[in-house]
Amino acid sequence: MSLPLPSSDALAASQALQRMIAAEIADQGGAIPFSRFMELALYAPNLGYYSGGAAKLGRDGDFTTSPEISPLFGATLARAAAAIMAQSAPNIIEFGAGTGKLAHDVLTALGELGVRVDSYTIIELSGELRARQQEALKDFPQVRWTHDFPVAFRGVVLANEVLDAMPVELVVRDGGRWHRQMVTVDDGRFVFTPAEPDAALMDQIARQIPDADTLQDGYLTEIHPVACGFMRSLAQMFEKGKGAAILIDYGFPAHEYYFDERTSGTLMCHYRHHAHPDPFYLPGLQDITAHVDFTTMALAAHGAGLDVLGYMSQAAFLLAAGIGELLLKTDPEDALRYLPQSKAVQKLVSPAEMGELFKVLIVGSGVVLEPAIERADRSQKL
Hints:
The protein has helices at 8-27, 34-43, 66-69, 71-85, 101-113, 127-136, 199-208, 225-237, 254-257, 294-303, 314-321, 323-327, 335-349, 371-375; strands at 32-33, 91-95, 119-123, 143-146, 155-160, 169-174, 177-186, 189-195, 220-223, 243-252, 268-271, 274-276, 287-289, 292-293, 307-313, 358-365. It is of the alpha/beta class and 382 residues long. It has one domain (25-382): Rossmann fold. Helix 4 crosses helix 5 and helix 8 runs parallel beside helix 10 (294-303). The model has no long low-confidence stretch (mean pLDDT 94).
Protein backbone atom coordinates (compact mmCIF):
# COMPACT_ATOMS: atom_id res chain seq x y z
CA MET A 1 0.00 0.00 0.00
CA SER A 2 1.15 3.53 -0.76
CA LEU A 3 -0.02 5.48 2.29
CA PRO A 4 1.26 8.69 3.91
CA LEU A 5 4.05 8.16 6.42
CA PRO A 6 3.30 9.01 10.06
CA SER A 7 5.34 11.43 12.12
CA SER A 8 7.99 10.00 14.42
CA ASP A 9 5.80 10.71 17.48
CA ALA A 10 2.78 9.01 15.89
CA LEU A 11 4.88 6.01 14.89
CA ALA A 12 6.25 5.73 18.44
CA ALA A 13 2.69 5.77 19.82
CA SER A 14 1.64 3.02 17.40
CA GLN A 15 4.65 0.93 18.35
CA ALA A 16 3.79 1.32 22.04
CA LEU A 17 0.25 0.12 21.34
CA GLN A 18 1.58 -2.80 19.31
CA ARG A 19 3.74 -3.85 22.27
CA MET A 20 0.71 -3.59 24.56
CA ILE A 21 -1.40 -5.79 22.24
CA ALA A 22 1.44 -8.31 21.81
CA ALA A 23 1.81 -8.54 25.58
CA GLU A 24 -1.91 -9.28 25.99
CA ILE A 25 -1.71 -11.91 23.26
CA ALA A 26 1.14 -13.58 25.16
CA ASP A 27 -0.80 -13.36 28.45
CA GLN A 28 -3.84 -14.99 26.79
CA GLY A 29 -1.90 -18.01 25.61
CA GLY A 30 -0.89 -16.80 22.17
CA ALA A 31 -4.06 -15.43 20.57
CA ILE A 32 -6.95 -13.02 21.20
CA PRO A 33 -10.26 -12.63 19.32
CA PHE A 34 -10.20 -10.05 16.54
CA SER A 35 -12.90 -8.14 18.44
CA ARG A 36 -10.44 -7.63 21.30
CA PHE A 37 -7.70 -6.54 18.90
CA MET A 38 -10.10 -4.01 17.36
CA GLU A 39 -11.15 -2.79 20.80
CA LEU A 40 -7.54 -2.17 21.81
CA ALA A 41 -6.61 -0.60 18.47
CA LEU A 42 -9.46 1.87 18.78
CA TYR A 43 -9.95 2.40 22.50
CA ALA A 44 -6.83 1.42 24.51
CA PRO A 45 -6.28 4.24 27.05
CA ASN A 46 -4.09 7.04 25.64
CA LEU A 47 -2.95 4.90 22.68
CA GLY A 48 -6.05 3.70 20.83
CA TYR A 49 -7.29 5.54 17.77
CA TYR A 50 -10.25 7.17 19.56
CA SER A 51 -8.56 7.60 22.94
CA GLY A 52 -5.27 9.00 21.65
CA GLY A 53 -4.45 12.53 20.60
CA ALA A 54 -4.37 12.43 16.79
CA ALA A 55 -6.86 14.42 14.73
CA LYS A 56 -9.62 12.16 13.41
CA LEU A 57 -11.93 14.30 11.31
CA GLY A 58 -11.74 16.89 8.58
CA ARG A 59 -8.98 17.81 6.16
CA ASP A 60 -6.19 16.94 8.61
CA GLY A 61 -7.82 13.75 9.82
CA ASP A 62 -8.73 10.43 8.28
CA PHE A 63 -12.32 10.85 7.08
CA THR A 64 -15.17 13.36 6.79
CA THR A 65 -18.66 12.82 8.19
CA SER A 66 -22.03 14.25 7.14
CA PRO A 67 -22.12 17.05 9.74
CA GLU A 68 -18.79 18.33 8.37
CA ILE A 69 -20.25 18.54 4.87
CA SER A 70 -23.13 20.91 5.56
CA PRO A 71 -24.87 22.58 8.53
CA LEU A 72 -28.13 21.63 6.82
CA PHE A 73 -27.54 18.03 7.95
CA GLY A 74 -27.76 19.04 11.61
CA ALA A 75 -30.57 21.50 10.94
CA THR A 76 -32.60 18.73 9.33
CA LEU A 77 -31.93 16.37 12.24
CA ALA A 78 -33.06 19.17 14.55
CA ARG A 79 -36.49 19.16 12.91
CA ALA A 80 -36.92 15.42 13.51
CA ALA A 81 -35.59 15.78 17.07
CA ALA A 82 -37.98 18.62 17.87
CA ALA A 83 -41.00 16.50 16.95
CA ILE A 84 -39.79 13.64 19.18
CA MET A 85 -38.95 15.95 22.12
CA ALA A 86 -42.45 17.45 21.88
CA GLN A 87 -43.76 13.97 22.75
CA SER A 88 -41.16 13.17 25.41
CA ALA A 89 -38.79 15.69 27.02
CA PRO A 90 -36.38 18.46 25.90
CA ASN A 91 -33.24 16.37 26.31
CA ILE A 92 -30.71 15.09 23.77
CA ILE A 93 -27.90 12.57 24.10
CA GLU A 94 -25.32 12.33 21.34
CA PHE A 95 -22.91 9.42 21.14
CA GLY A 96 -19.53 10.08 19.55
CA ALA A 97 -20.02 13.75 18.74
CA GLY A 98 -16.97 14.15 16.48
CA THR A 99 -15.78 17.74 16.33
CA GLY A 100 -18.99 18.98 17.94
CA LYS A 101 -20.27 20.22 14.58
CA LEU A 102 -23.50 18.20 14.70
CA ALA A 103 -24.30 19.33 18.24
CA HIS A 104 -23.59 22.96 17.28
CA ASP A 105 -25.82 22.79 14.21
CA VAL A 106 -28.64 20.95 15.98
CA LEU A 107 -28.67 23.35 18.93
CA THR A 108 -28.44 26.39 16.65
CA ALA A 109 -31.34 25.19 14.52
CA LEU A 110 -33.48 24.30 17.55
CA GLY A 111 -32.82 27.77 18.95
CA GLU A 112 -33.97 29.33 15.69
CA LEU A 113 -37.13 27.20 15.87
CA GLY A 114 -37.76 28.36 19.44
CA VAL A 115 -37.40 24.81 20.78
CA ARG A 116 -35.98 24.61 24.32
CA VAL A 117 -33.28 22.03 25.09
CA ASP A 118 -32.71 21.53 28.81
CA SER A 119 -29.76 19.18 28.44
CA TYR A 120 -27.50 18.06 25.61
CA THR A 121 -25.30 15.23 26.88
CA ILE A 122 -22.33 14.03 24.84
CA ILE A 123 -20.92 10.56 25.49
CA GLU A 124 -17.41 10.74 24.07
CA LEU A 125 -14.41 8.43 24.52
CA SER A 126 -11.85 10.47 22.58
CA GLY A 127 -9.96 13.04 24.64
CA GLU A 128 -8.85 14.88 21.50
CA LEU A 129 -12.39 15.11 20.15
CA ARG A 130 -13.81 16.06 23.54
CA ALA A 131 -11.43 19.02 23.71
CA ARG A 132 -12.51 20.14 20.24
CA GLN A 133 -16.16 19.74 21.22
CA GLN A 134 -15.74 21.84 24.35
CA GLU A 135 -14.27 24.66 22.30
CA ALA A 136 -16.94 24.41 19.58
CA LEU A 137 -19.81 24.30 22.08
CA LYS A 138 -18.64 26.82 24.68
CA ASP A 139 -21.62 29.06 23.93
CA PHE A 140 -24.17 26.34 24.77
CA PRO A 141 -24.41 26.01 28.57
CA GLN A 142 -26.78 23.03 28.41
CA VAL A 143 -24.04 20.80 26.96
CA ARG A 144 -22.25 18.42 29.30
CA TRP A 145 -20.00 15.40 28.87
CA THR A 146 -20.03 11.95 30.39
CA HIS A 147 -18.67 8.46 29.73
CA ASP A 148 -21.72 6.43 30.77
CA PHE A 149 -25.29 5.69 29.75
CA PRO A 150 -27.85 7.31 32.07
CA VAL A 151 -29.94 4.88 34.10
CA ALA A 152 -33.11 6.34 32.58
CA PHE A 153 -33.77 8.87 29.83
CA ARG A 154 -36.55 10.80 28.09
CA GLY A 155 -35.84 12.60 24.84
CA VAL A 156 -33.77 12.04 21.70
CA VAL A 157 -30.60 10.05 21.14
CA LEU A 158 -28.38 10.88 18.14
CA ALA A 159 -25.68 8.51 16.89
CA ASN A 160 -24.04 9.40 13.59
CA GLU A 161 -21.40 6.87 12.47
CA VAL A 162 -21.17 5.24 15.88
CA LEU A 163 -22.25 1.64 15.29
CA ASP A 164 -19.65 1.11 12.54
CA ALA A 165 -16.80 1.77 15.00
CA MET A 166 -17.87 -0.88 17.52
CA PRO A 167 -15.63 -3.96 17.69
CA VAL A 168 -16.77 -6.90 15.58
CA GLU A 169 -16.01 -10.59 15.54
CA LEU A 170 -14.63 -11.95 12.27
CA VAL A 171 -15.77 -15.42 11.27
CA VAL A 172 -14.73 -17.49 8.27
CA ARG A 173 -16.28 -20.57 6.67
CA ASP A 174 -13.89 -23.49 6.24
CA GLY A 175 -14.54 -27.18 5.77
CA GLY A 176 -18.28 -26.59 5.98
CA ARG A 177 -17.93 -25.03 9.45
CA TRP A 178 -17.57 -21.55 10.92
CA HIS A 179 -14.30 -20.54 12.57
CA ARG A 180 -13.51 -17.51 14.70
CA GLN A 181 -10.67 -15.32 13.48
CA MET A 182 -8.12 -14.83 16.24
CA VAL A 183 -5.08 -12.57 16.20
CA THR A 184 -1.61 -13.88 17.02
CA VAL A 185 1.97 -12.73 16.53
CA ASP A 186 4.18 -14.38 13.92
CA ASP A 187 7.73 -13.14 13.32
CA GLY A 188 6.89 -9.84 14.99
CA ARG A 189 3.72 -9.22 12.93
CA PHE A 190 0.05 -9.54 13.78
CA VAL A 191 -1.64 -12.28 11.73
CA PHE A 192 -4.92 -14.15 11.77
CA THR A 193 -5.29 -17.69 13.08
CA PRO A 194 -8.58 -19.64 13.18
CA ALA A 195 -10.21 -21.11 16.29
CA GLU A 196 -13.42 -22.90 17.19
CA PRO A 197 -16.19 -20.41 18.06
CA ASP A 198 -17.81 -20.74 21.48
CA ALA A 199 -21.51 -21.49 21.91
CA ALA A 200 -22.48 -17.81 22.28
CA LEU A 201 -20.78 -16.87 19.02
CA MET A 202 -22.34 -19.82 17.20
CA ASP A 203 -25.76 -18.71 18.43
CA GLN A 204 -25.09 -15.18 17.16
CA ILE A 205 -23.97 -16.53 13.76
CA ALA A 206 -27.18 -18.55 13.49
CA ARG A 207 -29.33 -15.52 14.40
CA GLN A 208 -27.49 -13.00 12.30
CA ILE A 209 -26.57 -14.69 9.00
CA PRO A 210 -29.42 -15.88 6.78
CA ASP A 211 -28.71 -19.41 5.46
CA ALA A 212 -25.40 -19.38 7.36
CA ASP A 213 -24.69 -23.04 6.65
CA THR A 214 -25.03 -22.68 2.87
CA LEU A 215 -22.27 -20.12 2.34
CA GLN A 216 -19.12 -21.24 0.56
CA ASP A 217 -15.79 -22.13 2.13
CA GLY A 218 -13.57 -19.09 2.42
CA TYR A 219 -16.51 -16.78 3.12
CA LEU A 220 -15.41 -14.12 5.66
CA THR A 221 -17.81 -11.77 7.43
CA GLU A 222 -18.50 -9.86 10.61
CA ILE A 223 -20.64 -10.57 13.67
CA HIS A 224 -21.76 -7.60 15.80
CA PRO A 225 -22.19 -8.57 19.49
CA VAL A 226 -20.98 -5.21 20.86
CA ALA A 227 -23.40 -3.21 18.69
CA CYS A 228 -26.21 -5.55 19.72
CA GLY A 229 -25.31 -4.87 23.34
CA PHE A 230 -25.45 -1.14 22.60
CA MET A 231 -28.99 -1.51 21.25
CA ARG A 232 -30.03 -3.42 24.38
CA SER A 233 -28.53 -0.64 26.52
CA LEU A 234 -30.61 1.91 24.62
CA ALA A 235 -33.71 -0.14 25.36
CA GLN A 236 -32.86 -0.31 29.05
CA MET A 237 -32.31 3.45 29.11
CA PHE A 238 -35.75 4.10 27.56
CA GLU A 239 -37.48 1.42 29.65
CA LYS A 240 -39.27 3.91 31.91
CA GLY A 241 -39.21 6.90 29.57
CA LYS A 242 -40.40 8.15 26.22
CA GLY A 243 -38.23 9.04 23.27
CA ALA A 244 -36.34 7.73 20.27
CA ALA A 245 -32.84 7.07 19.02
CA ILE A 246 -31.85 8.15 15.50
CA LEU A 247 -28.95 6.01 14.32
CA ILE A 248 -27.23 6.95 11.05
CA ASP A 249 -24.53 4.80 9.51
CA TYR A 250 -23.42 2.95 6.42
CA GLY A 251 -24.62 -0.61 6.06
CA PHE A 252 -27.23 -2.98 4.72
CA PRO A 253 -30.14 -5.16 5.79
CA ALA A 254 -29.09 -8.77 6.37
CA HIS A 255 -30.27 -10.07 3.02
CA GLU A 256 -27.88 -7.63 1.32
CA TYR A 257 -25.09 -7.80 3.90
CA TYR A 258 -24.49 -11.52 3.36
CA PHE A 259 -24.53 -11.69 -0.42
CA ASP A 260 -22.85 -14.81 -1.76
CA GLU A 261 -20.46 -12.53 -3.65
CA ARG A 262 -19.41 -10.51 -0.57
CA THR A 263 -16.84 -13.11 0.40
CA SER A 264 -14.38 -10.78 2.15
CA GLY A 265 -16.80 -9.03 4.49
CA THR A 266 -17.02 -5.27 4.92
CA LEU A 267 -14.16 -4.47 7.29
CA MET A 268 -12.40 -1.29 6.17
CA CYS A 269 -9.69 0.98 7.54
CA HIS A 270 -9.29 4.75 7.08
CA TYR A 271 -5.96 6.53 7.28
CA ARG A 272 -5.41 10.10 6.09
CA HIS A 273 -8.41 9.92 3.73
CA HIS A 274 -7.16 6.63 2.25
CA ALA A 275 -9.36 3.54 2.59
CA HIS A 276 -7.73 0.10 2.71
CA PRO A 277 -8.49 -3.39 4.12
CA ASP A 278 -5.51 -4.08 6.46
CA PRO A 279 -6.53 -3.81 10.16
CA PHE A 280 -2.94 -4.48 11.28
CA TYR A 281 -1.48 -1.38 9.61
CA LEU A 282 -0.22 1.12 12.23
CA PRO A 283 -2.62 0.19 15.08
CA GLY A 284 -3.81 3.27 16.90
CA LEU A 285 -3.26 5.59 13.94
CA GLN A 286 -6.10 4.42 11.71
CA ASP A 287 -9.82 3.92 12.05
CA ILE A 288 -11.17 0.37 11.73
CA THR A 289 -14.83 0.00 10.81
CA ALA A 290 -17.37 -2.50 9.57
CA HIS A 291 -20.65 -1.85 7.81
CA VAL A 292 -23.73 -2.15 10.01
CA ASP A 293 -26.15 -5.07 9.74
CA PHE A 294 -29.33 -3.07 10.26
CA THR A 295 -31.56 -6.13 10.46
CA THR A 296 -29.57 -7.39 13.43
CA MET A 297 -29.66 -3.93 15.06
CA ALA A 298 -33.43 -3.69 14.64
CA LEU A 299 -33.96 -7.20 16.01
CA ALA A 300 -31.75 -6.47 19.01
CA ALA A 301 -33.69 -3.29 19.78
CA HIS A 302 -37.08 -4.94 19.30
CA GLY A 303 -36.08 -7.97 21.32
CA ALA A 304 -35.12 -5.67 24.20
CA GLY A 305 -38.47 -3.89 24.14
CA LEU A 306 -38.09 -0.93 21.78
CA ASP A 307 -40.36 -0.16 18.83
CA VAL A 308 -38.74 -0.08 15.39
CA LEU A 309 -40.17 3.24 14.26
CA GLY A 310 -38.44 3.61 10.92
CA TYR A 311 -35.71 2.43 8.58
CA MET A 312 -34.79 4.23 5.38
CA SER A 313 -31.92 5.55 3.31
CA GLN A 314 -30.21 8.74 4.45
CA ALA A 315 -31.56 10.44 1.34
CA ALA A 316 -35.14 9.46 2.11
CA PHE A 317 -34.81 10.59 5.73
CA LEU A 318 -33.24 13.96 4.96
CA LEU A 319 -35.72 14.73 2.20
CA ALA A 320 -38.70 13.69 4.35
CA ALA A 321 -37.39 15.74 7.28
CA GLY A 322 -37.17 18.84 5.09
CA ILE A 323 -33.61 19.38 3.92
CA GLY A 324 -34.94 20.66 0.59
CA GLU A 325 -36.99 23.34 2.32
CA LEU A 326 -33.99 24.37 4.39
CA LEU A 327 -31.84 24.64 1.28
CA LEU A 328 -34.38 26.92 -0.36
CA LYS A 329 -34.12 29.39 2.51
CA THR A 330 -31.06 30.53 0.57
CA ASP A 331 -32.12 32.35 -2.61
CA PRO A 332 -31.07 30.24 -5.65
CA GLU A 333 -30.34 33.54 -7.41
CA ASP A 334 -27.59 34.14 -4.85
CA ALA A 335 -25.22 31.74 -6.58
CA LEU A 336 -22.26 32.48 -4.34
CA ARG A 337 -24.14 31.19 -1.28
CA TYR A 338 -26.63 28.80 -2.85
CA LEU A 339 -24.39 26.68 -5.10
CA PRO A 340 -22.00 25.44 -2.36
CA GLN A 341 -24.97 24.51 -0.17
CA SER A 342 -26.72 22.78 -3.07
CA LYS A 343 -23.57 20.82 -3.87
CA ALA A 344 -23.25 19.72 -0.24
CA VAL A 345 -26.88 18.60 -0.09
CA GLN A 346 -26.37 16.69 -3.32
CA LYS A 347 -23.49 14.80 -1.70
CA LEU A 348 -25.67 13.92 1.28
CA VAL A 349 -28.65 12.64 -0.72
CA SER A 350 -27.25 11.44 -4.05
CA PRO A 351 -27.42 7.64 -4.59
CA ALA A 352 -23.91 7.89 -6.07
CA GLU A 353 -22.58 9.58 -2.90
CA MET A 354 -23.94 9.09 0.65
CA GLY A 355 -27.66 9.00 -0.01
CA GLU A 356 -28.17 5.25 -0.41
CA LEU A 357 -25.16 3.65 1.29
CA PHE A 358 -25.98 5.46 4.54
CA LYS A 359 -29.14 4.34 6.32
CA VAL A 360 -31.22 5.70 9.18
CA LEU A 361 -32.68 3.40 11.84
CA ILE A 362 -35.06 4.96 14.35
CA VAL A 363 -36.05 3.00 17.45
CA GLY A 364 -37.92 4.25 20.47
CA SER A 365 -40.70 4.02 23.00
CA GLY A 366 -43.95 5.92 23.42
CA VAL A 367 -43.51 8.27 20.44
CA VAL A 368 -44.44 8.42 16.76
CA LEU A 369 -42.58 9.93 13.84
CA GLU A 370 -43.64 12.90 11.76
CA PRO A 371 -46.01 11.74 8.96
CA ALA A 372 -43.53 12.53 6.16
CA ILE A 373 -40.78 10.48 7.83
CA GLU A 374 -43.24 7.70 8.63
CA ARG A 375 -44.21 7.53 4.94
CA ALA A 376 -40.53 7.05 4.05
CA ASP A 377 -40.24 4.00 6.31
CA ARG A 378 -38.94 0.86 4.63
CA SER A 379 -38.54 -1.33 7.72
CA GLN A 380 -40.37 -4.11 5.89
CA LYS A 381 -37.13 -4.48 3.88
CA LEU A 382 -35.25 -5.49 7.00
